[in-house]
Amino acid sequence: MVERGKLGKNSEIIQQQNRLLALQLIREKGVTSRIELASLTGLKQATITNIINELIEMDFVRETGLIEGKRGRRVKGITLNNEKMQIMVARITTHYFAAGLYDLNGECIQVEKVVWKENARPLQKLEEVCGHLLKISVENKKLVGAGIVFQGNEYTILSPLRTDIMEEHIEFLQEYFNQKLSTEVFIESMSNMSAYFAWNRLKRENRKNVSILVCLNISYSVDCAVISQGSLLRGADGMAGNYGHVSIDMNGPECECGNRGCINKYISVDAVKNCCGRLKAKYPDSVIGQDSDIREIIRAYYEEDALAMELYADIAEKTGVVLTNLINQFEPEELIIGDEIPNDERFLNWVKESVSRRTKEKYSTKTDIRIFQEERKTERDVGMRGMSLYIVDEMLKRLDLISKEREKAR
Predict the structure, then answer these.
(1) Number of neighbours of residue 148 by Cβ within 10 angstroms
(2) Burial of 386 per CB tally in 10 Å (0-12, 13-18, 19+)
């Protein structure tokens, strides 16, 4: 039997939710006022005043001067303090890393993408990433925190530990970056942070009817993230979402995980490249060569290269199989796919057609399947931008602790 006391929300949690709500509205409005925030949230004006005063004290927001309020009355404006508070984020993949600086809106201020040196060891990679972040932290001293976004569960890319226990790699990296960067460091998966970005975008669009959102990131691994009522589904050890090792064909090719017919073997970047190699003999005049990277292959698809068109028609069909499984599992209102795939209507329609052939109409029509419509540039990376938003929200939840620490230091 559940204890009655466990069902309620204490005042601290309510304060956290109110702060987040206020910050989200300030993000959405750009410039607003205490009076407008009280009206939009339904909170008492005194409560909003306390929240805004806290956020100003912690440098999350600032006053802009007088703006026009109701009935033409001039009131003090409130906006995000993007000039003062910023976030460092690095994205780690098997082929490259990117390190950048972001504002409180999740917008990129600066970013650099670096391809790994050939035969570089984990410790060398770790030091290189840390060096780029340290350069950012020296140049920009007012930091909310730092985040490391990994593709899938590839934490061993940076970790020199010789262990199969993923939690040990995460703990090592957390401690290393915390010490080196002298700031709070968060480590998350690309799929989780892409989903967090998508959820925040839905909030800005006021699409309040979405209770479950699923994101599928298709890159060098295939990863899934689920957000239910605003909370990430993490699993018992925080490792949920390694969807690329779900089998869709028990007689399929052997996977490095020991299983057969894993999703990674059909729609990941490596699967796309392998398929290109098999199709090259059929299309010798294709612009796609043996050394073409995934961006060049996608570009060939946009240019309607014959090999690329057949390739992505097949990838769309298989992606539809994967999405059908996700729809049957979670019944999401929103299902968003993205990363290293074409982001045009043609590819999306091929995927939807594949799904519709495999699901009953009453299920498929409930789910809005979309592609991340973001420009394919590192500065628009949804995982890195999602991480910056996530860090701000997490630090706001700890605002009471931060305030107490500052009070002790005075």
Answers:
(1) 25
(2) buried
Q: Are 104 and 390 in contact (CB under 8 A)?
A: no
Answer for the pair 269, 294: CB distance below 8 angstroms, yes or no.
Answer: yes
Give percent of the chain with pLDDT exceeding 70: 90
E strands in 59-202: 61-68, 74-80, 86-92, 96-102, 108-115, 143-150, 185-189
Q: What are phi and psi of 272, to 5 degrees?
A: -60, -45
Beta-sheet strand order (sheet of 212-218)? 231-232, 222-228, 212-218, 334-339, 368-371
The number of beta carbons lying within 10 Å of the beta carbon of residue 307 is 21
Residue with tokens 């599928």: 216
Cα distances (angstroms) measured from residue 323 to each of 6, 155, 326, 336, 370 = 36, 26, 5, 10, 11
Structure tokens at 204: 């800005």
- The span from the CA of 79 to the CA of 62, in Å, is 6
- SS3 string of 360-378? CHHHHCCCEEEECCCCCCH
Using an 8 Å Cβ cutoff, are 114 and 96 in contact? Answer: yes
Check: CB of residue 122 under 8 Å from CB of residue 154: no
Report the SS3 class of residue 337: strand
Instruction: Give the single-character DSSP code of 157.
Output: G
- Is the pLDDT at 185 greater than 60, yes or no? yes
Q: How many CA atoms lie within 13 A of 316 on its CB side?
A: 25
- Is the pLDDT confidence value at 391 over 70? yes
Helix or strand (DSSP H, E) at 218 = strand 212-218
Q: What is the mean pLDDT of the chain?
A: 86
